[in-house]
Amino acid sequence: MMNLKSISGLLVIFYLVSFSGSANESNVVIDNFNVDPIILENDAIKVSVDKLSGCFTVVEKKSGQIWGSDPWENAAGLLTLSDSKGKKQTVNLSKSKKIEVVGKDAATVIIRFIDPVLEDGSVATGVIIGSQLTLSENAAKLDVLVNEYNQGSFRLLDLRYPSRQFSLKTDEDKGAAVIPQKQGIICPSYIFPMNGGRFCKWDDATYNNKSVGSLELFNNGTGLTMPWWGTYNEKSAVVGILEEGSRPEMQYNINNNGQYLFNSKGQMSPYQRIVFLDPIWKFEGEVGKMAISYHFLPGGNYVDMAKTYKKEAIKKGYFVSLKDKAARNPNVNKLPGAIYFGVYGGYPHYVNMPGMAFTFDQLTDMIRVVHDELKVGNAFFHAWGTFSNFVPNNWPINEDLGGISKLKAAVDLTKKYGYLYSSYHAYSPMLENDPNFTTDLMVRDADGKLENTGSRWARVDPKFQLGLAKKSIEKEIAALGLQADITDITFAAYRESGKEGRHALAKYIDSLNLVNGTEHGQEQWIPYFDMFEGMTYLEDRPLSVISHHAPLFNLVYHDAIANFGKIQDPDNEVTANGDFRIKALRSMLFGRGTTIFFAPYEFEGMRPMIKMANELVSPVHRETFFSELLTHEYLSADYKVQRSYFSSGTEVLANLGPVTQKIADGTSIPGYGYRVTFKDSTEKSGHFKVSLMAD
First CA to last CA across the chain, in angstroms? Predict the structure, then answer.
C-alpha cells in the first residue's frame, strides 16, 4: 500500500540559506511551510523528498541500503546555462530563490526550481526547471521525469538531474559503476590487486584525466550501446533505464573528487572521493524526452541490472531471437562456431591498393587451406578490396583481380564447405581520393550548407543510401550467388537525425534474406541483422585503464545477435587489447565468435591462432550460440578469474591473468587457464603458455 506523509507545521517558517562561493553574498528564500519531507512508500522502497533542497533519498527495505542524494553540495540538479553576454556557468538548483515540492497524489511528487542563484549572487530570473518523481505501486522502481523548463532571458545548455545520486564512496563501498560501453565495462569503487601495477592508474586517475567525462548514447564505439547504467555495492544495486526517446549523455565520475586533493592555496578538498553516473539532459540538438526509471535490486549486481533491462528490451521489440532468425533463413545455422575471416586487400573502402591487393585465385587458395589443412569446421569470409570503384558505389567487381567469374569460384567453394562468404559494403563514406568525389550526396542543413564535411565516413545523407544500395547489391547477389552481406559504418550508431533513411536501408537489406552483419552494433538494429562485428574492445580510451570487461550486451542479447571481434583490433596484435590468449578466453566466457583479420601476406602467420580458435573457442561458440548467457561472475580479487553459465548447460571457467589462482571451492586455475564443462558433462581444460620465449 502506498501512503503519502505530509505533516503540516503550525508556524510559517522562512528558511534563509546562505549562498557562498562569491564576493557577493546572497540569501536564498525557500518558501515551505514545514520541514518534514514528503514520503512516497511501497512495500519495497521508501522515497523521502526534502522540501528545502528538492533532493531525495531512497531506502531499499529488504537490504537496508540507503541511496542518498548528492554528498558534495546537496544539489538536486546542476544546470548549465549562459547569459546574454555568452558567459557559461553551472548552478546548483537546490540554491534556487524558490523551491516548490508538492505531493500530487500518493505516488507522485512535483518539484519546481524557480530562479536559480548564479555564481555572483545574482538571480537567473525567469529560469524554471520542473521535475516529477513517481513511485511504482508494486515494484522497487522510481520514475524521474524533467517535465518543465523555462529559460527566461538565458540560454539553457544542459541539466544533470538527478546529480551525484546513488553514488559509491571510494574505498568504503565495495562495488562498481556499470557502463554498457561497447560490450560493457565495470569500474570498481575500491582499490584491488591489479597485475603489473595497474592499480596506480586507478588511484591516480585524477592526475591522468581518466576519471571524469561523458559518453553519448548509441554512439559508434565510444558511447553506450544500451540506454541504461547503474551502481552497486555489497547490499544493493540501482539501475537507471532511459525511457524510449530519451537522449541524454552519461556523465561518469570514477574515483575522482572533482578538484585537486590539495591546491596551491594550501586547502584540502572537502569532497569525498566518490563514484557516480549522471544523466546529462540536453536542451539543444537531439533533446528527446527527459525521463529515466530507477530500479532497485537488493543484493544485485551488474548481471541483475542486465537481466532487468532485458525485460525492457523484449517489451520494446528489439529482442528477436537467433532461433527465429534461423527459422526464417537456415543459413544463419552456419554461424555457430564460425571463425570470421576478414581478408584485407584494399583501403580505403574498398578499392585494391598496390602492394596490398590479392587475386581472387589467391582468395580461393586461402579458403581451401582453411578447410583442407586447418580443418576449420565453420567459417565466415569477407574480402576488402574487390571493387573497381570507391564507396559508396561498391561496384563493379575488379577485373584486374579476376573479375566476377574468379570471385564466384571462391564464393562457390565456401558453399561447398558449408561456409559463408559475404560481400562488404559502405554507403555513408565519401572519400577525398575518390576520382568520382561529389558533394551531391552529402548531408546539408536546412539552408543548404554542407554538414559533416570533416567526417569522411559519414558524409553521405542517409536518405540517399537506400538508392545507392539498390543500384548494385542485387546485381552482385545474382552474379556471385551471395548468401551473406556486411554493411559497414552506417549502422555503427543510432541517431535521431537521419534515422528514417537508416531504417529504410536496414529494412531493404533485411528483405534480401541474407545473413546480415554490420559494424559495432546498436540494439535498434538487432531485428534486421544476424551478427555484429566490433563490440569487443575499448582502445586506449579514458575508462579503459580503470575498468574491466563485462559481457553486459551479451547478458541481454546473446541469444538475439551473434557477436564477433572488431576488424580494426587484429587478434594478432600483442597489446593490451590484442593478446590472443586473453581474447580466446574472453570469447569463451562471453559466448562470442573469433575474428581473424589479415592481409594475404600475413596468412601463414595466422595458422597458430586459427588452430587455437578452431579447437578451443569454436566448440564453445557452437554449443552456446542459440543459448542465453545466464550469468557471469568474477571469482578473484583482481577480476582475472571469471566464470559464465549458459542456458545450454555449458559452464566456462577461465583465468585471464598470468598467475595461478585458487578460487573459493579450492580449485586452482593456472595462468591463462580454462575449464569448459559442456552440456553432456564432458570437460576440456588446459592453459596457454605464459612465457614468450621459445622452448
Answer: 71
Q: Is-contact 318 556, C-beta < 8 A?
A: no
CA distance 37 to 28: 19
SS3 647: coil
462 beta partners: none
Can you tell me the distance from the alpha carbon of 625 to that of 558, in angstroms, rounded to the nearest whole number?
Answer: 8
Among 525, 528, 593, 523, smallest CA distance to 564 is for: 593
C-alpha dist (Å) from residue 502 to 181, 465, 507, 566: 22, 8, 9, 22
pLDDT in tens, 508-538: 999 999 999 998 889 999 999 999 998 876 6
CA 670 to chain centre: 31
- List, in order, residues 6 or more apart from 472 with CB less than 8 Å away: 393, 394, 395, 396
Peptide bond into 392 cis (omega under 30): yes
Q: In the predicted model, what is the mean pLDDT of residues 24-30?
A: 38
* Separation of alpha carbons 595 and 565, rounded Å: 5
| 380-403 pLDDT, tens digit each | 999 988 888 888 998 999 898 899
Please check whether residue 122 is in contact with residue 79, taking contact to mean a CB–CB distance below 8 angstroms: no
Does the predicted TM-score (pTM) go above 0.85?
yes
Just give the CATH number of 337-626. 3.20.20.80
Return the bridge partners of 676, or none.
652, 684
Return the exposure string of 138-174: e unless at least 16 CB atoms fall within 10 Å of the residue's CB, then b.
eebbbbbbbeebebeebebbbbbbbbbbbbbbbeebe
Query: Distance (Å, rounded) from C-alpha 312 to C-alpha 208?
Result: 37
- Measured between alpha carbons, how far is 231 from 167 in angstroms, rounded to an integer? 7
The torsion of the CA quartet 458, 462, 467, 473, rounded to 10 degrees, works out to 60
- Report yes or no: 121 and 24 within 8 Å, Cβ to Cβ: yes
User: Which sequence spans correspond to the domains of the chain?
Assistant: 3-160, 168-316, 337-626
What span, in angstroms and rounded, lies between the C-alpha atoms of 558 and 657? 25
